[in-house]
C-alpha cells in the first residue's frame, strides 16, 4: 500500500470483485436481509 491508499487499478479490482459478489448473491435469491 502507498501510504494507506490503494493504487487506482487495485481499488478498481477490489470494487469489481465486490460488485461481482453482490451480483452472485442476488442471482441466487440471497439478499442483505438474509445475511444477518
From TrEMBL:
PROSITE patterns: PROTEIN_KINASE_DOM. GO terms for molecular function: ATP binding; protein serine/threonine kinase activity. InterPro entries: Kinase-like_dom_sf, Prot_kinase_dom. It holds the Pfam family Pkinase. Residues 1-36 form the Protein kinase domain. The keyword Amino-acid biosynthesis does not apply. Keywords: ATP-binding, Kinase, Nucleotide-binding, Serine/threonine-protein kinase, Transferase. GO terms for biological process: signal transduction. It comes from the Eukaryota. This is Protein kinase domain-containing protein.
Amino acid at each position: 500500500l502507498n501510504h494507506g491508499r490503494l493504487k487506482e487499478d487495485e481499488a478498481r479490482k477490489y470494487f469489481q470483485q465486490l460488485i461481482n459478489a453482490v451480483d452472485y448473491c442476488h442471482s441466487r435469491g440471497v439478499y442483505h436481509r438474509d445475511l444477518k
